[in-house]
Amino acid sequence: MLVKSKRGWELPERDATPESTYANRRQLLRAMGAGALLAASAVPVASAFADDPAGGDKDDPSAKLYPVKRNDKYKLDRPITDAKYSTDYNNFYEFSTDKELVAAAQALPIRPWTITVDGMVEKPFQIGIDDLLAKMQLEERLYRHRCVEAWSMAVPWSGFPLKDFVALAKPLGGAKFIRFETFMDPKVADGQNQPFYPWPYIEGLTMAEATNELAFMVTGMYGKPVPKQDGAPIRVVLPWKYGFKSGKSIVKVSFTDKQPRTFWQDLQESDYGFWANVNPAVPHPRWSQATERVLGTDERVPTQIWNGYGEYVAQLYDGLKSERLFA
Ligand code: MTE
Questions:
Q1: Which range marks the domain in which residue 35 is found?
Q2: Domain total for the chain?
Q3: What global pTM score does this model have?
Q4: Chain-wide mean pLDDT for the chain?
């Protein structure tokens, strides 16, 4: 784990790792992984994506679909982050725990790409990404993204509402949760050769969260196909939750009546729980969540509860006050 430049919320790894975890190597390595969420990189260099006017991947047959019409309902309170920052400063542990992983991520083959839909659905099925794109009405949305590490960005994502995907999947009445699984291919993603991480990357939501209007399946970014480092060819985006809930490069969507165990719960549940809704008043065990560093300008601004999306999502949690909703 590298800490290349220290900022206010960063701690040396030995300070960030609870003493008890030193006793156990496996736990220590896991804590290092989780601690790596603290790492910030040096100033990003220009992104391959931003430099490529043809799109994120010239071989991507979906390139012709973009740009798509913006849905103006979702407004930003700040400028859009320059693509050279948001597509060049990434968390994608499959490729690296370092933020500079653009080159490594290019090894991911994104065609053919098949998504399996299974579990509590009328009929399990598989669908290729291009067939899925043909079925969905694509739109662009401007959302803020808040990472648990206390950096943020504002991004024009393209994609379709997750609730449209849920409708396509036809879940059974008893389904209470949705589970997302990222690809598993240690040959192309070297991080997956590190056995102390609980691969593959799993995330989950309640059905009420998944069918909330904000929940978005992202296939594009800045009017082009989403680049590999940002989760090509399809990822989740949940703007009221910390970014780790937004799984990238999804290959399986399952419906279940049991709350899924997530990658981060398996790695370090004390720090990264199932709900992970943004709340400036609830600090991470090792740093404050009160403010965030805006990528590109490095300005520090106050963080808002539900990342500012409370009018859409706060009511989802009315009956869940006893849960650990914010960490
Ligand atoms: N999805 C997978 N499969 N692997 C990851 O390491 N990192 C998460 C999330 N989704 C991650 C992931 C975290 S911590 C964040 S903040 C966002 O992706 C970062 O998305 P970005 O790199 O597009 O900014």
A1: 13-316
A2: 1
A3: 0.87
A4: 87
